[in-house]
Design goal:
With about 325 residues, this protein is mostly helical. The N and C termini lie far apart (about 75 Å). Helix 10 (about 245-265) packs antiparallel against helix 11 (about 270-295). A three-stranded mixed sheet has the order 2-1-3. The radius of gyration is 21 Å and the shape is globular. The protein contains twelve helices and three strands.
Length: about 325
């Protein structure tokens, strides 16, 4: 019992569970996840390249899309090391500090993505509800300041999490449910009082995801009000079509995120594979689908991509 007060950070590592549910199919499962990584990484790099090269895309909406692509690359590279170590190299052990670092970056990029999606909804609101002032409201300087503010706010919110965990004694089994380190998973292991950790975690979830999602809904309520005031049905559909990509990006981010939170908080007796599946969807689907959605729905990106892949000229 005397070891219960010892801080794990200097003596212990965590064991990442991996995916025993696919025993016998590990190589196929690893190949599948690596394919998802390849699609995510190449897709987001292509989006960044196209926006950089295509002069017509040098406007606020696509600056925010560039930031979203950089953020999605961050999500992919945050989980890749331990996924490779666990599935491909069969090294499930990860050092305490390395685990906390990975946890920080995974949650940092999640909070940042929420802020970017909010900024993109404001862009759509100004473009549709106040188009005459679009260029004066969303100047390059304001877009840059918005991006920097999102990053700073996300950093400040997530920064305390590793330190709040590091102060606790870990005396339970150090087996994690996933192949990467998440705060809801880590907070189950300390034998000390985790009230502060749980309260702070809930606070930042509500203050970030909660506030962002409400403001996104509000912006779309105002957009819908403006669109319904347009006399022509064709013009209404054309205007709404400019929001489809962003709406899809919001849904593929928030639906898995809410599902993961619900499973972790209220599904304590759910099978482990449910937790793992929901976390995989949350961390893999948005970075993979965002570039695909914007490539399909954005004419300029689609043309440039077609030119790159097929060498055709327009």
């Amino acid at each position: 019992m005397g070891n219960f007060g010892t801080n794990i950070s200097s003596t212990t590592s965590f064991t990442l569970t991996g995916f025993p549910e696919v025993e016998g199919l590990e190589h196929w499962f690893a190949a599948f996840l690596l394919l998802l990584y390849a699609i995510s990484i190449l897709g987001n790099i292509l989006i960044l390249f196209i926006i950089k090269e295509e002069q017509s895309l040098h406007q606020p909406m696509y600056y925010f899309l560039s930031l979203l692509s950089v953020n999605d690359l961050g999500v992919s590279f945050s989980t890749l090391p331990t996924i490779l170590a666990t599935l491909c190299f069969h090294v499930p052990e990860t050092a305490f500090d390395a685990c906390l670092t990975q946890m920080f970056f995974i949650h940092f990029f999640s909070w940042t993505e929420s802020g970017i999606l909010l900024a993109m909804s404001f862009d759509r609101y100004v473009a549709i509800c106040n188009p005459l002032h679009y260029s004066t409201v969303l100047t390059d300087t304001r877009v840059a300041h918005t991006g920097i503010s999102i990053i700073i706010c996300s950093f400040c919110m997530v920064f305390p999490l590793p330190f709040l965990l590091k102060r606790l004694p870990f005396c339970k089994d150090n087996m994690l449910t996933h192949s990467y380190c998440l705060h809801p998973d880590l907070i189950r292991l300390p034998c000390g009082d985790t009230t502060i950790n749980s309260t702070y975690g809930l606070f930042i979830v509500i203050s970030a995801f909660g506030v962002d999602s409400v403001l996104i809904l509000l912006s779309y309520a105002l957009i819908l009000h403006s669109v319904l005031a347009i006399a022509s049905q064709e013009e209404r559909l054309k205007t709404l079509n400019t929001c489809v990509s962003h709406i899809c990006a919001v849904l593929i981010f928030y639906v898995p995120m809410v599902s993961v939170s619900m499973v972790h908080r209220f599904g304590k007796y759910a099978p482990e594979y449910v937790h793992k599946f929901m976390s995989l969807v949350y961390l893999f689907v948005p970075p993979m689908l965002n570039p695909i959605i914007y490539s399909i729905k954005t004419k300029e990106i689609r043309k440039r991509l077609h030119k790159i892949l097929l060498g055709t000229r327009y």
